[in-house]
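User: Please run a holo structure prediction.
Assistant: Happy to. Please share the sequence and the ligand.
User: Here you go; the ligand is pyridoxal-5'-phosphate.
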Amino acid sequence: MHDRLFIPGPVEVRPELLQAIAQPQVGHRTQAYMDVHSATIPLLKKILYTEQDVLLFTCSATGVMEGSLRNLCQKKALLTVNGAFSKRWYQIAGFNGVPADKLEVPMGKAVMPEDLDKALATGQYDVFCAVFNETSTGVRAPLEKYSEVLKKYPDVMFCVDAVSAMAGDKIETDKLGLDVCLAGTQKCWGLPTGMCVTMISNKAMAKAATAKAPGYYVNFVDAKKYNDKHQTPHTPAIPILFGLHAQCNHIVNEEGLDNRWKRHLDMQKLTHQWVKDAGFELFPEKGYESVTLSCIKKPEGFDFKNLNGQLSKRHHCVISNGYGDIKEQTFRVAHMADTKVEEMKQLFKWIDAILAEANVTA
Ligand SMILES: Cc1ncc(COP(=O)(O)O)c(C=O)c1O
């Protein structure tokens, strides 16, 4: 029996999706492939509230984080840094020789729009990158506020890592004026890893066409050229596309978008209540808590290893330790993808029982 995952990715995959993935393969230049690809893209556009391009890259999210900088930055990039993944995006700029500055705040906090405005007003930047949902800290960035600021700087590309939020937390990409919004399939999409779903604006596509060294593998213009023919430039993760198609159908036509967003908010609410009742404390500053995962402070002497070990041994499920610089100070519970409110309630009952037995008081 496997351990049911309550970790912030990879996540539990519904049996129906595993079935969809486990189909006989088709050639990626065949009509059979193109039929699934062309049926999936319009559903993705609905979920991302966009009428612009949504492209599928066969790589994990990091590939498109790198690709966004290579395709779009011609001057200098400005990146928020408030956790392990935003720090990684800043480091990726360095690895690619892309000039970059960071807008850094302590972990647990979100970058404020006034500081963003001040930085962009210098006129140095043509790309702004923000991690919407810092998976390491559970901080949700104020995208709407950033969007207001970005309206003053139409030449700055607005790139968003929505890795642990997309398909769980509502993101109206066109309304927000996003130029890139990316996420791998292994988090709120409720699928195994393998593809990175990426919304790219027409403005970003036009700019990518003028890039001197956009890179070969994650090349926006090339990817669009093939996407317009319902294909990808290179061999895609075909099984993941099958799963994504089934999942998009489920999200749009069975669960319904509003119900999906509400279920995630309900799970967040339930988790916050449990955190309070159990005597724990959330790590993020108030008002900036993630909808899809909770990062919780470990009380003094808290034995996380024992708790997770017992969850696995007795109930075949696991939650997650902290990540990055705050690994020892925090632990995380994911409430994303196709997890039900009832499953979260059950999880918290199990945790409460183990903690009571171990006499670990929060
Ligand atoms: C916010 C965020 N950004 C980027 C990544 C990197 O994604 P991947 O491992 O799919 O490349 C992760 C992975 O957990 C993440 O949570």
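The mean pLDDT is 97.
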